[in-house]
From TrEMBL:
Upper lineage: Eukaryota, Viridiplantae, Streptophyta, Embryophyta, Tracheophyta
Signal peptide annotation: 1-21
Start and end residues of each Fungal lipase-type domain: 100-238
Matches recorded under InterPro entries: AB_hydrolase_fold (IPR029058), Fungal_lipase-type (IPR002921), Sec_MonoDiacylglyc_Lipase (IPR051218)
Name of this chain's protein: Fungal lipase-type domain-containing protein
GO biological process, one term: lipid metabolic process
One of the record's GO molecular function terms: hydrolase activity
Domain of life assignment: Eukaryota
Keyword annotations from UniProtKB, A to Z: Hydrolase, Signal
Length: 353
């Protein structure tokens, strides 16, 4: 009897190993999006600008990162969630005929601790209305349970009234990419943006294979750009031996990597397969670089060295601000009106380090 029992255990272990070694494939209902290099180089500048801490310069689009390919952008709403160290903006890019939403990622001073913490994050939340879909509670919470979501949704509604059926483009870097993905899915589900496009940079995994399948069907026009050995797209870890329980990226990945030697080095932009976990893309290398996480397309991504959650605001801009009891601030304007004349010296300052 004892021998037969151990034989059954051995058979079960073998079956588990065989079934666990098969990677789950993400199901698709729609064609995968085409990669647009020009659009990527524009959206990465928006993903960079949202890190700026000077609310006056960001709200008036006069900051050092608010130029070049994003010149002429008009912010409708700037949301600064001081309690949770989050920031996002919604505005209109008339050259793209688009409403652009950008989310700030993890601040540079805390990224090392954040990366270490991400190694141990478990799938710990069932996504509402999606059987078997599980997601990362922290990323879900950052978008859905803070001042960010109502501010973004309200601004999108106002923008659509002003500009009609502009395309909605959502972007972000690092944790901002995770929030951008939840936002794109949210907009699709509540029918605020049927034509929503999402493009993220250095985004971590946010859910399991079931979630990735739902996501790819509901937000098919999604591109995740990864860079060289960037550590964050490898987090939380992916275990192909446990496909039902592990995190799983959704498609479509575009992997940037360099080839050549010396002065002959050039960047390849590889459009990956439909699995979300193409083994020939970023998964083909070790994700061990924070440096590769902080620059995409030659654009610096990450915060400024002044502090993790600092706000600087001119008194002229303070007239557009509303502040709740938690100290969170929303700067809101109608882009058809002109700004008040701004003072040169910063007035209102908040710091939460």
């Amino acid at each position: 009897m004892e021998r037969r029992r151990w034989l059954k255990v051995a058979i079960l272990i073998c079956l588990f190993a065989l079934s666990g070694s098969r990677e789950l494939k993400v199901r698709h209902k729609y064609h995968l999006p085409a990669y647009n290099h020009t659009l990527a180089t524009i959206l990465v500048e928006y993903a960079s600008a949202v890190y700026m801490s000077d609310s006056t310069e960001l709200f008036t689009w006069t900051c050092s990162r608010c130029d070049d390919l994003t010149k002429g952008f008009e912010i409708i709403e700037l949301i600064v969630d001081v309690q949770n160290c989050l920031q996002a903006f919604v505005g209109v890019a008339k050259d793209l005929n688009a409403i652009v939403i950008a989310f700030r990622g993890t601040q540079e001073r805390s990224i090392q601790n954040w990366v270490e913490d991400m190694y141990w994050k478990q799938l710990d939340l069932n996504y509402p209305g999606m059987p078997d879909a599980m997601v990362h509670h922290g990323f879900y919470y950052a978008y859905h349970n803070t001042t960010v979501r109502p501010g973004v949704i309200n601004a999108v509604k106002r923008a659509k009234k002003l500009y009609g059926n502009f395309t909605v483009m959502v972007t972000g870097h690092s944790m901002g990419g995770a929030m951008a993905s939840f936002c794109g899915l949210d907009l699709a589900l509540i029918n605020e943006a049927r034509d929503v496009q999402v493009m993220t940079f250095g985004q971590p995994r946010i859910g399991n294979a079931a979630f990735a399948s739902y996501y790819s069907q509901l937000v098919p026009n999604t591109i995740r750009v990864t860079n060289e050995h960037d550590i964050v797209p490898h987090l939380p870890p992916y275990y192909y031996y446990f496909p039902q329980k592990t995190y799983h990226h959704f498609p479509r990945e575009v992997w940037l990597y360099n080839i050549g030697l010396g002065s002959l080095v050039y960047t390849v932009e590889k459009v990956c397969d439909s699995s979300g976990e193409d083994p020939s893309c970023s998964r083909s290398v070790t994700g061990n670089s924070i440096i590769d996480h902080l620059v995409y397309y030659g654009v610096k991504l990450g915060g400024e060295p002044v502090g993790t959650c600092r706000i600087v605001m001119d008194p002229g801009v303070a007239g557009y601000a509303t502040e709740d009891l938690g100290g969170n601030i929303i700067l809101s304007r109608d882009p058809s009106t002109s700004f008040l004349k701004l003072n040169t010296e910063p007035g209102l300052q908040h710091a939460n380090n």
